[in-house]
Write a structure and sequence with these properties.
The chain has helices spanning 4-10, 29-42, 68-80, 84-88, 94-109, 125-138, 163-181, 215-218, and strands at residues 18-23, 59-63, 114-118, 144-148, 184-190, 222-226, 237-245, 251-258, 263-266. It has 286 residues and is α/β, with parallel strands linked by helices. It has a nine-stranded mixed sheet with strand order 3-2-4-5-1-6-7-8-9, sandwiched between helices. Helix 3 crosses helix 5 (94-109). The longest helix is centred in the middle third of the chain and has 19 residues, at 163-181.
């Protein structure tokens, strides 16, 4: 994922696994999904490179919430590390124009795809799988499928069904899709309102905050909750808590905001662990 705390305790995501991001309204679900997807796509490569790329992965990103052009601006802003508003308004400095040009040239020569599919309404797992199969049959199959986001999907059943059951079954269908096709799936879910008088603190971190249905997390291998603090916009970092974890320990970590460039960056205080005893996790346990 490109985030040290998560990759260290999980060893990264495996084919068929599902990661869910939980956050309050406006809490950063979409930007977190996008940044993880870009990190996976790049796999350590960058826009300064012209050849001898490390092995990346193909990403298929279903944008249910955001129109294609807005999503494209966000990806280019993050890739070039230039302000999205500058791209939107065509008001970039000379240096920013150079970086945008580098990013665009990089996307043409980089041998791995980041494909955005705009699905404004009626997205079911059947429609998503149909597009996935069409792409997989015509070229290399995507290794990662991102759905932004789960709560906006439609259930394929036409009869009346309770909302909590609908979302649980949708989560199950996304998980099944990932396992059948052996792809990593990423998506996000809305958190429940914390309630009056209890809006902060550790009591607001956990699986009980997942909106509407406990069945949703039953199908996920991992779930990260984005913590929302009072005056969150004044903090430079975003706190993340692993609230669901199979095959690993729990934990928490932080990423750093550069929201003007649509970026959530790895904690700069994280050390490179390549030369460290892999059994020593004393400074990682929370």
């Amino acid at each position: 994922t490109g985030y040290s705390f998560f990759d260290f305790i999980t060893g990264g995501l495996r084919p068929s696994e599902m990661l869910l991001i939980g956050a309050d309204t406006g809490g950063g679900k979409s930007i977190m999904l996008m940044n993880i997807a870009i990190n996976m796509w790049l796999a350590g490569n960058n826009i300064e490179m012209e050849k001898n790329f490390k092995e990346g992965v193909d990403i298929l990103f279903f944008s249910l919430e955001m129109p294609f052009l807005d999503m494209q601006e966000r990806v280019l802003s993050r890739l070039a590390m230039i302000p999205q508003v500058g791209i939107r308004d065509a008001k970039l400095t000379d240096e920013e124009q150079k970086r945008l040009s580098k990013a665009l040239k990089f996307t043409k020569r980089y041998p791995f795809d980041f494909e955005i599919v705009d699905m404004p309404r009626g997205a079911t797992i059947e429609s998503i799988e149909m597009i996935y199969n069409d792409i997989a049959s015509s070229r290399r199959k995507p290794a990662v499928v991102v759905i932004d986001y789960l709560s906006l999907m439609e259930h394929s059943r036409k009869d009346e069904i309770d909302d909590w059951l609908k979302l649980g079954e949708i989560a199950g269908s996304v998980s099944e899709f990932g396992r059948v096709n052996e792809v990593i799936t990423l998506s996000a879910v809305q958190l429940n309102d914390p309630g009056k008088g209890n809006k902060t603190g550790e009591s607001q971190i956990g699986m009980h905050r997942i909106g509407r249905s406990k069945l949703i997390l039953h199908h996920a291998n991992f779930a990260l909750q984005i913590e929302k603090r009072p005056n969150e916009e004044s903090f430079p970092e975003l706190n993340l808590h692993m609230i669901k974890h199979r095959r690993t320990q729990g934990g928490r970590g932080k990423v750093y905001k550069n929201l003007s460039c649509c970026a959530l960056l790895n904690d700069p205080m994280e050390n490179n662990d390549q030369n460290k005893d892999p059994g020593d996790i004393s400074n990682r346990i929370v």
